[in-house]
Automatic annotation (TrEMBL):
Compositionally biased spans, kind Polar residues: 16-26
Taxonomic path: Eukaryota, Viridiplantae, Streptophyta, Embryophyta, Tracheophyta
Protein known as: Integrase zinc-binding domain-containing protein
Biased composition (Basic and acidic residues): 1-14
Gene3D superfamilies for the chain: 1.10.340.70
PANTHER family, A to Z: RIBONUCLEASE H
Region (Disordered): 1-26
Top-level taxonomic group: Eukaryota
Amino acid sequence: MEHVPRERNQEADRLSQLSTEEYGTMQDSTSVEWVAEEAFRAKEVMYNASEGEGRAPGPWYQAIWEFLSTEDLPGDPPVANKIQRQSLRYTLLDGAFYRRSFQGPLLKCVTREEGLAAVEEMHGRMYGSHVNSKTLTQKMLRSGIFWPFVAKDA
């Protein structure tokens, strides 16, 4: 590794200042290339109740999904009570299952496999952020996806 004095490192200085300036106000001839690339690619999940024999698309939210879509509860009172309480944090919109977050938008609920694929895309690509698990978890939630083990899997 070689130390480069600030006087000879103007390009790096200019790049570090780009995030605080508006695009049209740059004074010198710094060229900016915009890369339009999604942070992750979510798989579309289609669900047809007649084909799925009444099963929900994801195992971890199956009972809540069924309660929200049909309002049917299991016969066991403690289990039914738990599902009713948990369902207050979730909603169905246009056939998609979302969790209500405390601070931001609705979080799309995904299966663990889809979540791990999103972690790989956010963390492991060439342009991915190589951060610790807590920061990656927060980034995943800000991007709008959720599964119960997001913190453990990140």
